[in-house]
Design goal:
Elements: H1 8-20, H2 23-38, H3 47-89, H4 105-123, H5 134-163
Helix pairs in contact: 1-3
């Protein structure tokens, strides 16, 4: 998929979250703490010495909360879209599940109970592969491909009719 034009903030946020989650960033932060701790005797463990680390970590933490939340919002949205695509593409899946993140907490709890009951029933199966075997997945894929072929042929016929 072609990368869309990103805002400066989006570029910065992506770079910042990638960097701050790296080993290099951790080692940098650890180095700062070690340097600060070692410098304690030099500054006689003064209030100013303590204030430097307290203020620095507070400001960084405050800013990182927003940066992390932005990253999580984006990741969550991308995951929801991917899940919606899977649901929409599977002919046997209920399309009513698409975009359920907009439901209330109570409605989600009701759906959760329904799926928990399905899971309990599935646990009663003697063979754990009975509904999740590779053969069943291949049959499902072949079924979906045949349906796609049929729809594609119908679409081609309609295109030919429209062009005539």
């Amino acid at each position: 998929m072609a990368q869309s034009k990103k805002s400066y903030f989006e570029k910065f946020a992506n770079l910042a979250t990638t960097f701050t989650g790296s080993s290099l960033a951790f080692l940098g932060a650890l180095s700062i703490v070690i340097i600060w701790a070692v410098s304690g005797p030099i500054f006689n463990y003064s209030e100013t010495w303590q204030l430097v680390i307290n203020t620095g970590t507070t400001i960084i933490t405050f800013l990182m909360v927003f940066l992390i939340q932005k990253s999580q919002n984006k990741d969550s949205k991308a995951i929801q879209i991917k899940l919606n695509e899977i649901i929409a593409s599977n002919e046997r899946a209920s399309n009513r599940i698409v975009d359920i993140e907009d439901l209330t907490e109570k409605e989600l709890d009701q759906l959760h109970l329904f799926y928990a009951k399905l899971a309990d029933e599935a646990e009663e199966d003697i063979d754990i592969h009975s509904s999740h075997s590779i053969d069943a997945a291949k049959r499902n894929q072949n079924f979906k491909y045949a349906k796609f072929q049929t729809r594609h042929e119908e679409w081609l016929q309609n295109q030919q009719k429209e062009s005539n």
